[in-house]
Design brief:
binds iron/sulfur cluster; binds magnesium ion; alpha/beta; globular; binds thiamine diphosphate; Rossmann fold; 2 domains; 8-stranded mixed sheet; 11 strands; 375 residues; 3-stranded antiparallel sheet
Amino acid sequence: MAELNYTVKDFKSENEVRWCPGCGDYAIMNAVQRTMAGMGIPREKYAVISGIGCSSRFPYYMSTYGFHTIHGRATAVASGVKLANPDLNVWVITGDGDAMAIGGNHFIHLIRRNIDLNLILFNNRIYGLTKGQYSPTSDRGFKTKTSPFGTIEDPFVPGQLVIGARGSFFARSIDGNMKLSQSVFEAAANHKGTSVVEVLQNCVIFNDGIHDMITDPVHKADRQLILEHGKPMLFGNENQKGIIFEKGKLKVAVIGENGVTIDDILVHDATETDPSLHMSLINMQLPDMPVVFGVIRSVEAPVYDTELVKQIKEVQKTRKITCVDELLNSGNTWEVTGNDTAGNPGCPKVVRINFTTKIFKGSAILQGLFCWLTH
Ligand SMILES: Cc1ncc(C[n+]2csc(CCOP(=O)(O)OP(=O)(O)O)c2C)c(N)n1
Ligand code: SF4
Ligand SMILES: [Mg+2]
């Protein structure tokens, strides 16, 4: 195959981008386009499938195959796209409302099946498109138009759902950190199975600054821990802080204090199949702990689409009928000829009816219908 020298521009469509100026979605899309340009995959092999929401307008702006589907069902449509076209590189674009509220059921079952898709969850912790209602990732007490006195419910933590649904890949990024987003998108694309990337996204209109505590440039070194597989979990301006395991819990320690050395700091293993430590990392939150980013979990697990193809091939070896065409042309078939229901003579087409339609033999209505359908 000739070398593909794509640039970001090759993945931008001619459609006018209609996100608000300053919306975090722009940076996420740019990181996706950079990732796709560098993957060495022909453009026609990409399909981008979205639900409904501001984030879900994404496929319009991509110069790839795409489908802006219905609310909460991007995962279902994308599953079908992938199973019918296993060689496509399929990306699901969804929001916190789209994936966690109306699409919650489809989200967890996609992950449980481990279909080879990449899902990017734009988490602005609000319904943006419908103008600012609270979402399943909004904090307890959060005031919006639909919760004027503050919500009285606790939010989902998307990574917890992924682990709970036996997820094989979970990563986190931030809209403004395009380098990090690009690296986790690449890792997601290379992972076999469902990869979920949660991106903390700022909605400048309805939830501006919701991630500021984490992204604030002055404090971010102390508040963000960017994980790398095989490396110690260090953070802070001079990487002087790290994560240790003490009394069954993760804890922040400072190297050089209380006898702590670099050897006490946990080393990240994204490939560990036991999800306990990955869950603890996902649960880390301010103010006591930094928030964890990067690829948190990436483990090998059976992939649904591969298993499906394998199973069909296996079954075909021992069956006389190996596909639907063969089924329809098998068993008791006979020809339907004669006049149609309107009395017009000679339906010239030969219609094969197999055993499933046998009970209708002799039915003039069916006969006429078949003539009409096959004319
Ligand atoms: C069946 C159905 N119910 C409700 C809606 C209204 N609706 C459209 S988008 C949306 C929420 C979008 O929020 P999110 O997924 O977080 O996307 P964002 O706009 O924040 O990117 C809702 C409730 C709809 N379009 N269809
Ligand atoms: S409403 Fe919010 S999420 Fe939607 S385009 Fe505007 S800034 Fe982005
Ligand atoms: Mg949202």
